[in-house]
Every structure is written in structure tokens, then in C-alpha cells.
Structure prediction request, 290 residues.
Amino acid sequence: MQTGLLLAVSAALLFGVYLFAAKRYFERYPAPTFVLLANLAGLAWYTPFGWATMPAAPLGEFDPATFTLLVGSSVATGFAVLAFFRALKLGDVSYVAPISKIVPVFVLPLEILLLDEHMTPLQVGGVVVLTVAIYVANYQSGALLDPFRRAVTTPAARLAVASAAIFGLVDVSKRLLMQELAVPPQVYVPVLLTTVAATMVPFALRAWPRGSPRGDLRKWVGVGVLVAGAQHLTAVAFQTLSASIASPLVNTQAVVAVVLGGVLLDEPRFRTRLLAAALVVGGVTLVSLP
Prediction:
């Protein structure tokens, strides 16, 4: 397997475990508080690694436009993550994850419009399969169009779709930063983690939980490893792959989250949601084919 593909799949595994851990071990934390502390924990782990592996003169060719794109992409990531974890608080992980990982539906059109990519018939088919995945994830007995109505009226589903749309923009900007602008991961990841954490501060302070987070110190250490590792692997994958390939692969994390949520948390409608996750995998595979 090509190195970039292997890195993207590895990032998906770490992100999938991260999503499960958020639901299983951090339920008492409001979404902004969790995102803030998880990113700070990831930054604590990543900083010494990034410093030790930093390439020479990493900022030598940065211009204001590059810096603006880097910070803007990081701020957008913060709001996308906040929307996702808010959806996760409102719905089961095996329900929210498949819907929130339709990011390629937004990535591919953006690459076509902004980066002169071309959509093949197979990729169009992938978008159709991803649309079916949303239908399946929302399916219950009733009228034929009820699942789509739930997807646009259920708060958890709306937030998950909004998160996916923002992440689509983020992934295209990440491809620009990693490839065309040659921003090293050792710069990108700390800026991302710091900016996301800073974006969460005003929201987290208004929803701070009772009890000190220090009681969960071991859990924060573990989730920090997941955040730092997943973000670094993702950034390196985007150095060699187009966004329309890297994004679908990274977003197969939905399958990991669905399996863990269904098996270990005994969430309802596991088979239906597993089918939805499988359709997401099939859809992103078709979208990623050249």
C-alpha cells in the first residue's frame, strides 16, 4: 500500500478510537470543554515531538496569505469539531458518525471548482452511495422520505451535516497548505491544536462542568495521544495525496466508531447503522478512485 494511503488509514483508526473514547469516557463534559481540553492534551504531547523533528527554517517562505489560510483553516476546524461533538452529545455515536463523515460529498466539488479536479462517473456514483448512507442511518419504519426529513430536522443530524460541510472546506485548504504551500506538519499541527483550543475558550467557560478535570488526568493523557497522533498522520497523508483521496480515507473512522459504539456501548439499531457505515466506506472508496 502507498505510504500516504497507509498513513490516512492509520489516522482513521486513531480518530475512530478517539470518537468512541469521547462518548464512553467523557460524557460529563460539555462539547466545548471536551474539545478544549483534548486539544490542549494533544498539544502537550505534540510540542516536544514537533520541536525535535522540525525542519530547518520552516517559516522562511511564509507570506501573510499563507498565514491567514493556516489560521482560518484552524478556526474553521474548531467550529466543525464543536458541531460534531455537540451532535455526539445529542445522538448515539453509531448514528452521528456515519452522517458526519460524508465530507467527500463537499470536498470533491470544491476541488473541481478551486483546484481544477475532474469528477469521473465512479466518483459521481460515490456521491450517490454516500447519499444512500444518510438515508440508511436515518431509516425507521414510515414514509419513504422520512429518513431525509429526519436528516434535516433532527438536531444531531443537522449538526453532523454542518460539521461535514465545514470539514470539506478544511480538507481542501489542508491540501493547499500541505502541498502547494509546503507547510510542514510540525508547524501545521501545533497551530491547529492551539487555534482550535483558543476558539473553544469562550464556549467552554460558559459550560464548565462541576468537578476538576484533574480527576480524569489519565484519560486526558490517553486522549491527547490519540489527538496528536491522528492529526500528525493526517497532515503527513495530505502531503502526498489529493484531498479527494485523503479525506475519504481518513473519514472511514466512522466504521471504527460505529463498531465500537455498537459492540461496547450496546447502542440501538446497530445492524442498520453498521450498514450505513459500510455504505460510507463504499461511497468514499468510489469517490477516491481516479
Notes: Residues 3-288 form one domain. The mean pLDDT is 80. Residues 212 and 275 are 39 Å apart (CA to CA).
